[in-house]
Amino acid sequence: MLLSELTWQAVDQLDRDTPVIIPVAALEQHGLHMPVFTDSMLLEAIVNRAHPSFQDHALVLPLTWLGNSHHHLDFPGTVSAEPRLWIDMLSGLVDNFITHGFKRIVVVNGHGGNDVPGRQALFEIRQRYRERKDLLLVFATYWNLAPSAQEQITDLQQSDMGHACEWETSMILHLRPDLVKQHQEAKPVLPGNAFKPAHRAWTMPDRSQAGHIGLPAEANARKGEQLLNLFAAGVSDLVDRVVRWNGQTWEG
After folding, report:
1. Domain count of the chain?
2. Which CATH number covers residue 29?
3. Residue 24 phi/psi, 5° resolution?
């Protein structure tokens, strides 16, 4: 069910165990070859592909395109909310539906920069309602729902998601090839981290002057279709698990 197409009376008639799906993404630079709306386009496509599998038993909000993208602000066209502002915005969205009586909230994320503040938002909300044992608050970044992508798509060169990389470029080549500009000329930018397992704070110019990380030149539309289907299946599986949760236990 799409929230945007329902009346408030129709929403009010829903069982309050109906999962509420909140897609969140970003509007930010994606290198020299990709549109700034890449993250939002991809997440919307993935949720749309997954939607038929749960359209009768989950409520899907319109995509929130504003993300936490401060690490891309050196590149014009990036639009970003301050981390604390973004946490409060997401908290407010979730809290709206708890106020309406819904108990199962799933945030599906399509931008790496939202990952830490997104989990923080749900952590804070859970503490606010700590006496509630019937709440299920879940945050998932879509590419983490398909950890074996390279095993299932044998000619993928990257083992993980990058940025404006082989994976994202392939998916946009499948969806909107007209928006991809000479990706074959993009030079490899390996992820690297000499300080692992520590986490090093970074901005994009620390790592890439062009604005991409990964292997865009290896992208093609066929890989993109396979990736979209794989990630949509991951979203469908997550929603199914949320539907099947018994409403009480940790494992459900």
Report:
1. 1
2. 3.40.50.10310
3. -130, 140
* Mean pLDDT, 10 residues at a time, the chain of 252 residues: 98 98 98 98 98 97 98 98 98 98 98 98 97 96 93 92 98 98 96 90 96 98 98 98 93 78
- The per-type count for the chain, helices as H runs and strands as E runs, is 8, 4
Are the C-beta atoms of 207 and 190 separated by less than 8 Å? Answer: no
pLDDT at position 128 is 97
pLDDT for the residue numbered 154: 87
> 107 and 63 in contact (C-beta within 8 Å)?
no
CA-based torsion, 40, 42, 44, 47: positive or negative: negative
- Domain annotation covers residue 149: yes
Dist. CA 2–CA 11, nearest whole Å? 10
The pLDDT tens digits for 112-135 are: 999 999 999 999 999 999 999 999
0.85 cut: is pTM over it?
yes
Containing 177, the helix (H) or strand (E) segment is none
Per-residue 3-state assignment (H helix, E strand, C coil) for 62-73: CCECCECCHHHC
CA angle 45, 125, 28 (to 5 degrees): 35
Place of tokens 């749960």: 54
Whether residue 9 lies inside any domain: the answer is no
